[in-house]
């Protein structure tokens, strides 16, 4: 039946997951890195293919790649990067915010120092710009290494470039830019582009009819992995920060709260990110303490401690206040009670977040899948269920590479 391969390029490493036709994982390879750039990505890509195993490679029928959103490259006519890639969190585009504000619609996601468009504006002022032929996202360039086609991207990676997700075209305000000719053609994520390059067929003994598909971003890939696939289904990521994503028929955008929507077929994946989350828990407790104290907490009982756990002042979503102070008092002597108050308070903020998305037009919350370091805390799940008023479940799979493998397999029904 053939295997499908998803490759995730995240912030701390790359991972490949191969799945069979029943969506079971048959191989997984990881390549850790930090502060990697395009030379490391290329090395990582070939390392992952090398280490999948002969039998897995010989059955591959499809491959897709996800990258980090707004990690971008400027390339020459042959796809060679003209300089180091600019990474997702690089804010050098700040100097161009006024210029972007002058052309983009109000509150558009491109109006951010880290947007792909702000990075393109920055490059446009550099000497190498005259040699540029293609402006690509990380996932586009890595897919190019596999199929050899340049100037191709997907509408997830193109959101922060300014692509019009409602009308599926570039807006006039982008078409009028002198650098418009560098922008890629945009396809639906999971569109077959071409078969794998002949030299890779020879090098890795991958079938020559193995198709390379357009990819997505790491956070959408993790959403696809979760199993959330119907209106009102949501995924809460309980990592260092608290990130909410809710599947809606209505597009919701509000830059005041940092809320924007990605397109998923005919639906919208709307979401926001709060500064509260696991990083605050980590400041006070080790992972073992978190586990042990949590087991001793009765999640059905409400803690009356009402905190706003933050590492430093300032919040965007669900409360927009750049000076919002952290509230971590009164602090009881008993660490179990303190943790109960923290878990309860983060659950309140999560519920407020989903309430905010619904007030702005998103569909009614139906169920919440959980991912990230805090997801396995069953006491917390009970507390969260109390505040959210809907079933709180574990994500079926958490790895972005798994979601991207589903994309390569064409089994993301939302995109059909
Ligand atoms: P990141 O966003 O850095 O990728 P992870 O998804 O790896 O984060 O999650 C790490 C966070 O999970 C840490 O901040 C830690 O405090 C939190 N965490 C770990 N174990 C637990 C637990 N049992 N209960 C709640 N939170 C936990």
Automatic annotation (TrEMBL):
Transmembrane segments: none annotated. SUPFAM superfamilies: Actin-like ATPase domain (SSF53067). Keywords: Kinase, Transferase. Residues 4-224 form the Carbohydrate kinase FGGY N-terminal domain. It comes from the Bacteria. CDD domains: ASKHA_NBD_FGGY_SePSK_AtXK1-like. The keyword Kinase applies. It holds the Pfam family FGGY_C. GO terms for molecular function: kinase activity. Residues 235-408 form the Carbohydrate kinase FGGY C-terminal domain. Belongs to the FGGY kinase family. This is FGGY-family carbohydrate kinase. It comes from Microcystis wesenbergii NRERC-220.
